[in-house]
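Lecture notes, unit on binding sites. The following record was shown on slide 14. It pairs a sequence with magnesium ion.
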Amino acid sequence: MRYDHVIWDWNGTLFDDVDLVVEIADLMLVRRSLPGIDRRRYLELFGFPVRGYYERVGFDLQQESFEQLSLEFIAEYQKRWGDHRLRSEAHRVIDWLDRRGVTQSVLSASEQVMLETVTAHFRIAERMTALIGTDNHHAASKLDQGLAHIQSLSVPRRRILLIGDTEHDYEVAVAIGIDCALVTEGHAPRERLKSTGMSTFDSLTKLVASIE
Ligand SMILES: [Mg+2]
């Protein structure tokens, strides 16, 4: 194996929540009599920090605070996440890496308690050596948490792989000096992921097979 440790992104990488997030954004826009959003348009506009995405989607941040919008989003997300699923391959690829002695963790821009709750529900938490979230619901960046996390791992950086689904995962990996591989069908369109120059895969199974 080329790596001893894999750092997983959560939303869109292990947890298939794109449709959920599109549904909530659409609902919040319609509540404000703004034009709604579909999956195609969401993928065009979504990005980190999430504040900029809220503006691009059409929310008026002069009229209401980003904090209020974030709280409304999270309240809806908490009501509905249980209706959604992991990517079908998630447990299989985690087992596969485990059998090869690769340790694994999750690094997410989600708030810590929610990350712990959702990953425990899907029996992912128990497979991970660490679950790293943030202390707020703003989904700004996970760079600082990522840096602290790799310093806490006793694994050389060249032996750590970050697996994600957005350009932010790529940016974090570059900034902290570890390799990155990206999976499509998450929160970013395939063409934009390819333009990072990182290896891009249409399934987690193919992705992890490529690192053997
Ligand atoms: Mg993600």
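Take-home: DSSP finds ten helices and eight strands in the chain.
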